[in-house]
Amino acid sequence: MMKKIAYTALLLTLAFTWFGASAQQKADATKPKKISPDLFGIFFEDLSYAADGGLYAELIQNRSFEYNPADNRDWNSMTAWKYQTDGFGYGTISVETAAPVHPNNPHYILLDIQDEGQKGVGLENSGFDGIPVKASKNYDFSVFLNAISDQSLPVKVALVDRKGKELGSSLFTTSDKGWKKYTQQIHINFDNDSAKLVLLIKAKGKIAIDMVSLFPEETFKNHRNGLRADLAQVIADIKPKFMRFPGGCLTHGDGIANIYRWKNTIGPVEQRVEQRNIWNYHQTAGLGYFEYFQFCEDIGAKPVPVLAAGVSCQNSGGTWRIGSTGQKGIPMEEMKAYVQDVLDLVEYANGPITSTWGAKRAVAGHPAPFNLEYLGIGNEDKITGVFEERFRMIYDAVHKAHPEIKIIGTVGPSPKGEDFDKGWKLADQLSVGIVDEHYYEKPQWFLKNTQRYDAYNRLRSKVYIGEYASWGNTLFNALSEAVYMTSLERNGDVVRMASYAPLIARIGHTSWNPNLIYFNGSKVFPTVNYYVQQQFAANSGNEYLPDVIKLKGEKAALDTTAGVSTVRDSATGDLILKIANAGNAPVSGEADLSKIGQLPKSAILTVITGNPDVKNSADNSQAIVPQSSVIKLQKKWAFTVPAYSLTVVRISGREIEKHK
Ligand code: AHR
Predict the structure, then answer these.
(1) Does 124 participate in catalysis according to the annotation?
(2) Please, which residues bridge with residue 306 across strands?
(3) Cβ 420 vs Cβ 411: under 8 Å
(4) Which protein residue has the closest C-alpha to ligand 1 atom 6?
(5) 370-400 pLDDT per residue, tens
(6) How far is residue 392's CA from residue 386's CA, in Å, rounded to a whole number?
(7) Which of the residues 380, 437, 481, 489 is marked catalytic?
(8) pTM score > 0.90 for this model?
């Protein structure tokens, strides 16, 4: 008994020291305070073609012939594919499962070519809305072939435009029987946004085909099986402190069988377990846990994986229409193995290469640990007995085995209500270090709720706002978020992390709007909300200074269309002022910079402003973008910022030092 009490006390101490809580009940609004160094990050969910057809640079759609009607009623193994006999060849084509490359990847195509005709017989893939290729660039093609005929077979792979004009091609010959991976590099001679890939067997014979793949040679950081460089760069440019992944609803899945299992997503891509995406498409898992961790490392974001809390989404089967009754728990006899999977993820990320799962990370090319610090358990689940029982099992096991890991609990899908209250109650009972709040609301909600965290009890769990957005992509929406974000900085002692949601969406395949970034096959369109997120993440600090900026007149009272904050980044010594104004009139005030030491003469001022109803779109992608200039500084810096604007002033710490 004594031991248990001592252990609980230790957990409590750990839970509250991790997050630097003092014994105060409320924020002291007048003193400088330490705030979270991880405040602004991103949340990546494979939603709206964010992974396949999005960030994952694979250009072939349905490369493994695993699409099926459970993904989407109209889909099957031949979706995005066409049987190609244009040169008057003929034979038979069938989808087979008898002798696959790997049992996890059961479907493949069998061609029995009776006459190759003038061009050969084979397959054509239309990619995701066409395959974008660029002149003078190279593309890495690969395919698994099983040449069943005795003789070796000549194969041609080409990228062609809609009229069949060749943009680049390569020839090779099969060797040996049995499944073998063939790789070719294709040099492209003409730009094209909607090419097709044609794979032709130019002889009579029998051949099995699987895992037809095409990547640009240049991926983000040039990793194999990598990410789309332009899109990844736009995400990296936010300078997020962390990345939550792989979902959202995707994580807890549409029924138990659809729960996202991280172990299914690592290892050779042809051996990964593909599955239906809850957002009505297909996950190849080509962008899997290794690639997520690697991307986090590449962009300097701490990884925040979220695992299901042993239950499926309460909306499984579309049951939001009948009261969200779709939550199902993993059977208790399977929970031990499930809990072990969770523990194994920590080992995969952080374990030595001599450990079972650390060794798999090393084999994948990353012997060094990924430094996992945070782990999400559950995603806005309905807080039921079934949930609680499983959450406790996972929570206790991780806490015991890995007290160094900061576990993030969940408190339902809304900023208040039954699940919110029950989730917080459970968090209190277990002393969960941090809980995940979600809210999608009108912009006015954000403006009215800027004091939400001022009164939060500093002794309770800390908060991660894992998903939030105002309903829209206009400048006004973005500014309502900006005003709110100044309040998150003010409360950065209790709000440890926040991430806008969702992050990216492919135009023409959006399952959810608004999003932070839109894209098509060849272009990326950041929204105004994106630029606001970027200003806050790239200009964050770990110390909040409450008494630097004072607004004049009415704005100083409780008019919450404006918000201000001042933070200092102790690593650089930079001081950053933010003035967000979602109101229809300019706002004036003064920043007292006299206490920061000898002032440098100038600073960088960045403003986002314009017509509040305007949004960036594919047709007008630069409608509103940040504008930067150099300003002169004075000890008492008097300012007037425009109506509908976000102003950020960054004063270089190096310059402050120089002038001391
Ligand atoms: O961000 C989109 C969805 O919103 C997430 O998948 C889910 O967690 C929330 O309901």
Answers:
(1) no
(2) 376
(3) yes
(4) 248
(5) 999 999 999 999 999 999 999 999 999 999 9
(6) 10
(7) 380
(8) yes
